[in-house]
Prior knowledge:
Layout: E1 5-8, H1 10-19, H2 26-39, E2 43-48, H3 49-57, H4 63-73, E3 79-83, H5 96-109, E4 113-116, H6 123-135, E5 140-146, H7 155-166, E6 173-178, H8 185-196, E7 204-208, H9 215-222, E8 229-232, H10 246-255, H11 264-281, H12 295-298, H13 302-314, H14 321-334, H15 344-357, H16 367-373, H17 386-393, H18 396-402, H19 410-417, H20 423-431, H21 434-442, H22 455-466, E9 472-477, E10 480-485, E11 494-496
Amino acid sequence: MAEVQLVETSLRDGNQCLWAALGIDTARTLTIAPVMDRVGFKAIDFTTSTHMGVAVRYKKEDPWERIRLMAEATPNTPLQFMSTGFRFIAWETASPEFMALAFRVLARNGIRRFCLADPMNDADSNIACARMVKQGGGEYVIVALVYTLSPIHDDAHYVERARKLAACPDIDALYIKDPGGLLSPNRARTLIPAIRAVIGDKPLELHSHCTIGLAELAYLDAVDYGVSALQCASGAAADGTSNPLSERVVANLRALGHTVAVDDEALAEVNRYFTRLAEAEGLPAGKPQPFDANYQHHQLPGGMVGTMRRHLAEARLSHLEGAVIEELGRVRQELGWPIVMTPFAQMTLTQAVMNVTGRERYAVIPDEVIRYALGRFGKPNMPIDPAVMDRIESLPRTRELRAEPPMPPLPELRRRIGRDLSDEEFLLRAVMPAGQVDAMRAAPPAARHYDPTLKPVISLLRKLAARRDLNYVCLEKAGFKLELRREPQAENPSVTS
């Protein structure tokens, strides 16, 4: 029987999978932080550069401040930042010195655990990033072996990379990252022991999604094969296309004789909080999913399936869904079997739609697919189909993109953007539109507390205040009285309590 730890994923992956990364803000994060810190999680999967961009763009909140405040509120639990290759917020490839600065500033603001998930499973790229993280003050580096199904992603593919990663002294642990929820118990039986055999005493974690109902079964078997930590979400932020439900995973592990040393009362409170939050804000709650064998063909993340259907419906092309999914498999093979995760999921789907709706296949090729073919996102796992590569090479746009200058050196970037900026503001302005950063800085300070039970009352008050036929409203209960009185000819009601 094994002792198993949990990594909590609601604030990052659950929020991204089920709530388009928009369900969490600073107040909603800080409110549950002290409880999360009591549970005994190995780590909290907290943010990515994408989530930091969302904080600026949509919430008008300072993502650096959010990291600092959360780190202060969770002194016993490391916060995790996930990095997908050499990129920070923008899709464009960043220079090594820019990434080194980003890792250094993240560590300085309170990120202690860095997760490196190269979408190509490029071991050399992960090792270079791990070295930067440790040199920049990062405490713990865990590197992903990104799982997928294809003719080339066999056990040997993962063993080769796991052996090389485990030999790097800057890497503290490895984990199997299964973004599509494709890892079956049968495959886990061979894959996990094979990886475990070549990584020595370095810990191995497992991260999967409930998209087709396999993740939880794989989790329960994985601990028998040497996985020491499982990554789970909580309450309404779990299940569906998100990660397995933490309370249910703990209960099942214990029923099978394993030990999970968490504070059950605090874990239950975390689960209740995310469920109440979803109910108050009208956010979808994850639900257990049935098995869908067809999903293994296209492997699109759940949120992207919905996006594809919406776009096809808007173009009155819903009848082409089957053709697009079939084409997606062909495109993926022709492009050298990229793993269907960001940014390759978006690239392959866009190309498949264009191939199905265009006058001929590859009549139009998006810039990001061209950049992929040029190696801007790393070397493809397999050579691109020669006919497709010839088509790409013949495009005038390819010549333009090949001539794109790399990211300027940091001193030059600072001269362009502002020499006197803090590192935090400089990093945001280097990769985001200036107007979005300006709007964030001009916005009022982010709230620090959120109570989902107050949402119905606040909504009611707003509706009442908007009515022009009411001049007086009173809400009263024991020890509390709230009056809203509209003064004659006043634009806004006054509030007394």
